[in-house]
Amino acid sequence: MRDLILLVIIGWCFLQAFRRPWIGIMCWTWLSIMNPHQLSWTLRDQPFAAAIAGSTLLGLMLTKDRRDFSLNRENITLMLLMGWFCITLPFSMIWEPSFDLFKRVMKIDFMVLVTLVLLNSKRHLMLFVWVNVLSIGFFGVKGGLFTVLTGGSYKVWGPENTYVEGNNEIALAITMVIPLMRFLQLQMQAKWAKGVMTFCMVMMAAAALGSHSRGALLAIASMALVLWWRGKNKVMGAVGMVVIGGALLSFMPAEWWDRMHTIKSYDQDESAMGRINAWWMAWNLAKSNFFGGGFYIWTAQIFALYGPDPNDVHAAHSIYFMVLGEQGFIGLILFLTLFCFAWGSASHLRTQGRWQPETQWLSDLGSMLQVGFVGYAVGGAFLSLTYWDLPYNMLIMAVVGRRWLARKAWLREPEEPLIVWPQFMRGWIKNKRLKAEAP
């Protein structure tokens, strides 16, 4: 029955994508983030994402819906990063697995560009946020309930055969989605809906703690600090965070506390020292190879050449050193630039969206996206989620929201301007507005 329902939903999205390709984008996002077919009995190996991507691309060419092919700093930087991947690929130290990973990463990045073309309305953006939240929220709420019922004695894991299969990876994904849930809660009117969302956010935090991930703990702490700093009532905010945090931590067993205490004594922890060894390996490789080592370098063969301890082979466990080792210093610069631009667009939404009631939702979105980016920056320093969809989807939200805000500022001249235009520009803008509103 589960497989049949899944087939019906995907089949409907496949057909709709020809006429409304933005529906294909929503389905692609759902399949890529949640991987619902991995929860089925017989459909796990079916290429549903490829089928939806194909119908969406065909719909992109046939649709009469609005499409936005404009260039902005984010999509230009992403295209430069994709171009750099193509340049570094021939220099891969281990070719075949690097090429396989290259194809996967390029598919994800290409669909990010397609999404930026197809999403252009508030309706699209809100649905896109909901799809991302529900895709991870399913595992987060379920994992939170599991943590509470078992007293945190067992680790929370992600879905098999996905980017977030590991406990560390699913913890970071859950952490990044919590601010998006808060954004949706701010848009709700019904008290019961807000209450349900509060419960879900608490369960998400419990699941992140239940993963026993030290990186997730640091990410949650950093996000909580940002939320407290930006809050209007800092005293009540601090009290609320202490109460909720204390209640959640009270469920965690002694082994959880022992693992978290290793953050202070990292030099005595084998896992932490293995990560540091991998970071030094990436640094040494990037210094010796301008183009990096390719998408597949975390092997004994490469560690024997560049690792301080050649026998201690670990994955990067860091978005920064992962890019550095695989794509060199140029790749790292482009990667950091991309998300710095996304942070800037979120900041623009946060500051400019507050001027009008009709754009306050964008201010909320920008603020929560920045909180999510803080979680990604801190938690990602200890986890390998460099190429996964969710951070790039948050970038899409910032870009689409900024374009929507720019169109509003262009077509209307609010009493308190969204953008403080020079005096000589105001008459020209007014003329553009009148022409746009003319029949």
From TrEMBL:
Pfam families: DUF5935 (PF19358), Wzy_C (PF04932). Keywords: Ligase, Membrane, Transmembrane, Transmembrane helix. Residues 1-185 form the DUF5935 domain. It is a multi-pass membrane protein. One of its GO terms (molecular function) is ligase activity. The chain crosses the membrane at residues 43-63, 75-95, 101-119, 126-146, 166-184, 196-229, 235-257, 278-299, 319-344, 365-388. It is found in: Membrane. Residues 200-336 form the O-antigen ligase-related domain. PANTHER family: LIPOPOLYSACCHARIDE BIOSYNTHESIS PROTEIN PA4999-RELATED, TEICHURONIC ACID BIOSYNTHESIS PROTEIN TUAE. NCBIfam families: PEP_O_lig_1 (TIGR03097). This is O-glycosylation ligase, exosortase A system-associated.
